[in-house]
Amino acid sequence: MNTFFIIFIGLPALEIFLMIKIGGEIGALNTIALIFLTAIIGIYYARIQGIQTLRSGILNLYQNKAPIYEIMSGASIAIAALLLIVPGFFTDAIGFLLLIPFTRNIIFKITMKNKKKFEEPSKETKTIDGEIVDKNKDEL
Length: 140
Hints:
Helices cover 77% and strands 0% of the residues.
């Protein structure tokens, strides 16, 4: 519930706050132009990154390798494009971070490191393996 609240209430509030602050500094028309400019540049860059990721994935398939990194990159590029379409400066910043391959690799490493923590089995389990032996056999 807290994550839901932050995303759907807190994020738009943060975006509105940033638009008001930036609009007060550079003007309303410049702020609107900047929002459109970041969206156009971001979508163009996402298209280029998406094509490169697709080419790399096809190359891995030809080499009989699993294109796991390319699948993750493609998903992050799609999320980045969505964030860049949404008007706002905070979402644009996150979108651009997802588009840059260097920062995308850092995000992947952090995500994989946290994933391994959750996947490790607990060593405190007190399960005893056993077998049930039925003394009463069926007789025919």
